[in-house]
Each structure stands twice: as C-alpha cells, then as structure tokens.
Design brief:
There is one protein chain. By secondary structure, this protein is mainly alpha-helical. The chain has helices spanning 3-14, 22-36, 46-61, 67-99, 103-114, 117-128, 132-159, 164-174, 178-188, 190-204, 207-218, 229-242, 247-270, 274-304. The radius of gyration is 18 Å and the shape is globular. The chain starts with a helix and ends in a 5-residue tail after the last helix.
C-alpha cells in the first residue's frame, strides 16, 4: 500500500466521524485529488463502491421519511421536474452550439444538469456511444459545480428567507447530483431534506425515458440502466411509516445513511482529476456554468413567486 492510498483510507474514515459534513467532505476530496493527482488502485474498485454506497445511503434515508409525504412530494415533483428537464435540455443544446462544444460532451452535460448529474451521465453515455474522454470531461464539470452548490445554496436560502420546503424544492431542481442535493438540504434542515430527497428521486426517474429516447434516436442497442434504488427508498419509507414502534432502529439507519452520504461525497471529489478539468476546456465550462445558473435562477424565481410549490 502506498502512502497516498493509506492517506486516502484515513481521510475516508475521518469522513465518517461526527465532525465531518457533506460540503467539507466533497471539498476535501477535490483538494486531495487536485493536489496529489491520486489514482485509486484497481483493488479498491472505487467507481463501483461509490455508486453502491450512494444508492445504499439514499435507500437508508428513506427510513427517516414519512411515506405519505414522500408520495405527495413525488407525484407533484414528477410533473414540474419534467418541465425543468425540457428547459435544461433545450438551453443546453443552444449553449452547446453557441460555444461550439462537442455534440456528445454537450449533450451529456445537458442531461447531467437536467436530471441527476453523474448518474444521468453514466446512464446515457453508453447509450449515446460516448467515449471515456467525453464522459470524464462532462463529469468533471458537473462535480465541480456540485462542490460550489454545497457551499453557496444554504447561505443563499437563508439570506432570502426560504422555508424548509422551498429550499428543498430549489435544491432538488437546481443541484446536479443526488448526493449534493441531499448534502445541501441536510445542512438546511430536516424539512428541506425530506422534500429535496423525494423530489430529486422523482427527477432521477426521468433517466429511463431520456435513455430510451436517446437509444431510439441513435438506434443503439446499449442496455438502459434502471434506477431500482428509488423503489427501495420508497419501500424503506413505507416500512418506517408502518412500524413506528421501531423508531430507534429507523433513526439509527437514517444516521448511518447520512454518514455514508458524507463518505460518498469525499470519494466523488477524489475522483476528479486535473487532466479532466483541463480537457473540458473553457467552452464546456462556460456552457456548464451558464446552464446551471439559468436553471437555478429560473427555478428559484418560480418557487419564490409561488408558481412551483
């Protein structure tokens, strides 16, 4: 084991401590990756572990939710997340043409912004026939903006006097990855967390129709990935709601899920590389930033005006 691998494992363990926070974990991971150009050894299987831990953590959060609230927020969220996704895809296409970014990388970035960041890029990339280079630059841009969102969204929400439900809805519609959505709303409050997680997972369901539509357009035979963990999240909420006498056990699972999410964010940050950021280029970074700002500002304006509730 190299010294860097040992330090990586030590920092991972530190992210499970009560003093770690989601924002700190992600920033620590990015700093570690950029300072040391760390490449995890294949034996750690970090990409697979990160995906599994994120999904397990989201399922665990279901034990801290009320099923009736989950269903209500999910039904409401599915419709207006569809509208926000359509807006992001159209604007992303226009910005891609403006900045003359590659069609594949531009589409991946638009899908990642519209639906759920890295998960959407990972699902649509194979269907689109994207190569590793195109996948890595889109992921690098998205993860960098996730780090910024974790830092700036809670202070903006408090400065504007957003309620728990308003902030949760804004985070779900405007932040890319599920992990960052949960991390930001967790910092804001329990009410924000419940709304943000549910609406974000409703948004993530759009991975399936978008992937199928992309496959049809490209005449691709690539296998579409279905987000089954969203169903397990709902089942966890149903179990916790139906068996309140086990509330201590559900609270323990919820706490473990939040710790797992913090560790996931560190691993995601540590997966960024200087090379991927350099290869992304100014055009793709500009497209990523402008698209994200437009989605965030537009959704915030509609929420504050009471159009989206």
């Amino acid at each position: 084991m190299t010294a860097l691998t040992a330090l990586f494992i030590l920092l991972s363990a530190a992210c499970l401590s009560p003093w770690a926070s989601p924002a700190l974990a992600l920033i620590l991971g990015i700093a570690f990756a950029l300072l040391f150009e760390f490449e995890p050894p294949p034996s750690l299987r970090m990409r697979h572990l990160t995906k599994v831990l994120l999904q397990a953590s989201v399922v665990g959060l279901g034990f801290g939710m009320n099923l009736r609230q989950v269903v209500r927020a999910g039904i409401d969220g599915f419709a207006y997340t569809g509208l926000s996704i359509a807006f992001a895809l159209v604007l992303g296409w226009l910005l891609g043409r403006l900045f003359k970014t590659g069609r594949t990388a531009s589409y991946l970035l638009s899908v990642g912004t519209a639906i759920c960041g890295g998960s959407a890029i990972a699902a649509v990339g194979p269907v689109l026939g994207a190569n590793q280079e195109e996948m890595s630059v889109a992921l690098a841009a998205v993860f960098l903006l996730n780090a910024i969102a974790l830092l700036v969204f809670p202070p903006i929400g408090r400065a504007l006097g957003l309620g728990q439900g308003q902030f949760g809805l804004w985070a779900a519609l405007a932040i890319h990855d599920t992990s960052a959505v949960v991390g930001a709303s967790l910092k804001y409050g329990a009410g924000a967390l419940a709304v943000a997680t549910t609406v974000k997972l409703a948004r993530a369901l759009w991975i399936v129709p978008i992937s199928l539509g992309t496959a049809a357009r490209k005449r691709s035979n690539a296998r579409v990935q279905y987000p089954w963990f969203i169903l397990l999240f709902g089942l966890a909420a149903g179990v916790a709601t139906s068996l309140p006498s086990f509330s201590a056990a559900w609270a323990a699972l919820d706490s473990a899920a939040k710790a797992g999410l913090t560790l996931t964010l560190f691993w995601i940050g540590a997966g960024i590389s200087r090379g991927a950021l350099r290869r992304a280029g100014l055009g793709l970074i500009a497209q990523a930033v402008l698209l994200w700002v437009a989605v965030a500002a537009g959704s915030l304006a509609l929420i504050r005006a009471g159009v989206i509730r």
